[in-house]
């Protein structure tokens, strides 16, 4: 059995739509404040764009998702 953890950072774009990025293998103990700091740096430095090349306007949320897989026998 294997666990996989990812963190999703979600953003609003300047055209009113949403965008997200997935971080595979985030470090253990990542806090919301740390995620906000990283996300705000992405917005401020225009590191990524949303659909239609729309700049990100703001960070909206972060979530951690853990999935578990098991080989069939």
From TrEMBL:
Pfam family, one: DUF2922
InterPro entries on file: DUF2922 (IPR021321)
Protein known as: DUF2922 domain-containing protein
UniProt organism field: Veillonella tobetsuensis
